[in-house]
Design the sequence.
């Protein structure tokens, strides 16, 4: 059984399952080179099929991580291939996330978008008869449960919204998922976090992590009570205060027009085409922004960040405890965009009675492509025993010949080194910043050693140096990648069986006596977001850190994603070379090839056409 999994909209992605084995997985942005592109995953689908050696006609099923196409199509450019410049649907972009904007009236936008969605798949060779739509939060839950090490687990999902929900709880047992609780999207914690992100001037669905980092510098006591008055958790449920207003519950659209819509953005003909809670969700989003403008703009951003972070942690933990009372289980799986928040994940792990957690490495909506495919696979196999994915390095990889061709094309001086792992460890110890490109590209938002920038962690100023080089303005330190045998020496309450620590999806408190050794990897609150590296997971990266340990005495390096600010993680050798040429790193490591010398000239003028035919062919190997 050959199953293509698809997510479109933000975090567009594709995966390929063949007889239950995950063969390939990638997000569209890593191939299109457009960070955060909300689109249809044309390139991602082409890549996973080519890696699997399949033609579209050979795919048995296409699994999509949502049931309500409308919810995931609005405001996005995923179907723009079929839009003319004057099409009414072309005016459909940006609704809600950029404020409710006046759009061209259309009687049946929902039906039109669904038609275009199926037309897009059909144009690629996938008839509607092969398409299965899977509930968004069930797909999230499946992506975490079936990829986890456990046959029995409690699964939580949490995000902005999807198919009328923003979260829920599932029991996984023997390959079967059972939903035991749901949270309506009108009570979305993820939406509130997004609105704070937007209010503070950051990009929704991209910069929420900056709010998490900024929160450690703020005072939550200044803003928590106000935020808790908007969204609270009590009686075992989440409550968006706006929905407790009788006038709102009776007529949300009318209430919006009378009380909220200060700029006349709403368009009646458009809103009437929406279904169910989409209206409530859109109205509440704008109400959050208006409330913050009226009541919270005097607070410093760091204090607002601290308030929403405290609320997110406490509400999530309260909900998890409530569900654990009803469904006791020592291990928990997490998926959904809210669980990209590593501090929340730490709090869940620290709940009494919880022994271990697993966070889907692609915890955002990209993961629903995998979850949907797994749901269809389990149904088609009659629930046969499954094996979790063996690796996260599921994206493009390149041969020595391809790498060397790219190096020659840019006229770089390079050397091929048989013991390159030993050499790189020594260079890191000497203070060099390494751009590491090796093997398959990682699945999910974290760089886990194959597309990483690596440096020694002993001096705090490396953060400022790298942020300047990479044109980033981050509040978080860079993550530590550490040898599995060294992790217990640095992290409080760490155990080798901790599943989430392998994927940089959780924070730990760093032991006080060790902080000075890894200053660059420790946040102001004394925590770090580790990747614990086991030799069997990534032998080459493990050997580099082992080499560094020979010189430093401990096996910890800092690791940040190999990309410039607002660019996706590098995918091809050309992407990596570009970052090297403009000064992102001191040393470029492409497989066994090492480059230490940049050509003369103005590196700022270096430009690459990411979509030229040569690059596209290389990226599909």
Sequence:
């Amino acid at each position: 059984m050959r199953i293509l999994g698809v997510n479109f909209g933000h975090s567009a992605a594709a995966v390929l399952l063949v007889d239950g084995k995950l063969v390939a997985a990638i997000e569209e942005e890593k191939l299109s080179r457009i960070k955060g592109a909300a689109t249809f995953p044309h390139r991602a689908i082409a890549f996973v099929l080519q890696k699997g050696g399949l033609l579209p006609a050979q795919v048995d099923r296409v699994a999509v991580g949502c049931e309500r196409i409308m919810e995931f199509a609005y405001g996005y450019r995923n179907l723009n291939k079929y839009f003319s410049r004057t099409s009414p649907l072309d005016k459909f972009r940006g609704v809600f996330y950029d404020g409710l904007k006046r759009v061209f009236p259309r009687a049946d936008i929902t039906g039109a978008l669904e038609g275009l969605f199926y037309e897009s798949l059909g144009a690629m060779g996938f008839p509607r008869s092969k398409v299965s739509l899977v509930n968004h939060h069930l797909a999230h839950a499946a992506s975490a449960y079936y990829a986890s090490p456990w046959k029995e687990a409690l699964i939580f999902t949490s995000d902005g919204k999807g198919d009328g929900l923003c979260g829920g709880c599932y029991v996984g047992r023997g390959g079967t998922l059972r939903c035991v609780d749901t949270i309506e999207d009108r009570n979305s914690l993820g939406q509130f976090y997004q609105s704070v992100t937007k209010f503070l001037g950051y990009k929704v669905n991209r910069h929420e992590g900056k709010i998490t980092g900024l929160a450690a510098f703020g005072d939550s006591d200044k803003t928590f009570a106000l935020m808790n008055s908007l969204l609270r958790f009590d009686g075992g449920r989440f409550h968006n205060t706006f929905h407790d207003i009788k006038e709102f519950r009776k007529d949300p659209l009318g209430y919006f027009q009378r009380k909220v819509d200060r700029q006349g953005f709403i368009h009646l003909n458009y809103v009437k085409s929406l279904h169910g809670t989409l209206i409530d969700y859109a109205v509440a989003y704008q109400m959050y922004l208006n409330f913050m403008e009226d009541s919270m703009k005097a607070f410093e951003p760091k204090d607002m960040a601290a308030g929403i972070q405290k609320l997110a942690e406490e509400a999530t933990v309260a909900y998890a405890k409530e569900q654990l009372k009803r469904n006791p289980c020592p291990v928990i799986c997490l998926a959904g965009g809210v669980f990209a928040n590593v501090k929340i994940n730490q709090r869940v792990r620290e709940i009494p009675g919880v022994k271990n957690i697993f966070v889907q490495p692609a915890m955002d909506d990209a993961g629903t492509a995998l979850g949907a495919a797994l749901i269809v696979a389990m149904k088609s196999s009659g629930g046969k025993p499954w094996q979790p994915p063996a690796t996260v390095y599921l994206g493009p990889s390149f041969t020595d010949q391809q790498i060397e061709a790219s190096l020659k094309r840019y006229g770089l001086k390079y050397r091929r080194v048989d013991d390159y792992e030993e050499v790189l460890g020594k260079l890191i110890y000497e203070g060099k910043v390494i751009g590491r490109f090796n093997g398959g590209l990682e699945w999910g938002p974290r760089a886990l050693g194959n597309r990483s920038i690596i440096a020694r962690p002993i001096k705090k100023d490396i953060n400022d140096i790298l942020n300047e080089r990479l044109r980033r303005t981050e509040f978080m330190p860079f993550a530590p990648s550490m040898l599995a045998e060294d992790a217990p020496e640095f992290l409080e309450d760490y155990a080798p069986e901790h599943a989430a620590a392998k994927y940089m999806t959780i924070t730990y408190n760093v032991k006080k006596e060790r902080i000075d050794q890894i200053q660059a990897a420790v946040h102001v609150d004394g925590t770090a977001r580790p990747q614990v590296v086991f030799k069997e997971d990534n032998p080459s990266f493990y050997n580099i850190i082992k080499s560094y340990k020979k010189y430093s005495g401990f096996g910890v390096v800092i690791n940040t994603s190999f990309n410039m600010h607002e660019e996706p993680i590098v995918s091809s050798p050309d992407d990596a070379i570009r970052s090297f040429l403009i000064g992102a790193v001191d040393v470029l490591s492409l497989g066994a090839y090492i480059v230490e010398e940049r050509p003369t000239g103005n590196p700022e003028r270096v430009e690459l056409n990411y979509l030229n035919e040569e690059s596209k062919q290389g990226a599909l190997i």
